[in-house]
Specification:
Blueprint: H1 5-12, H2 17-21, E1 23-29, E2 34-40, H3 50-65, E3 74-75, E4 78-79, H4 80-92, H5 115-128
Antiparallel strand pairs: 1-2, 3-4
Amino acid sequence: METVVIPELKKRFPDNAFIKALQPVISTNTNIGAVSINYGLPINMMPRTDYERDLFNDYKEAFNELNTYGSKSSYNNMPIQDMFYYYSMIANSSKVGPTSLQSIFEDYVTNTNSPAESFRNFVSSIDSDPKS
């Protein structure tokens, strides 16, 4: 994602606020001291002020627009929104945090055709299985 997909998406969608703002973000795992560089947005993804919430909502709206570009809404036959959801699952362990993209998926995860919905149903089935 970092070396090929995101740079290509920046060329494909130069006016999309979400894609345009993506930048490398350094994260440190405090448990083991490991440093990683993932792509994120230049704001606190857990907005506290009205200004931060406004920026967050602008980025979220631009992310939601990514499925409205017809054939350009996919990269190598995979929906771009799905790619970012999977990327966040891997890069951020699906956890919400100040640099994680996870909170941008609020609207996306309610889509019944999204991998997020399938994953939630899978986890629910395991949690509700009396044999587990």
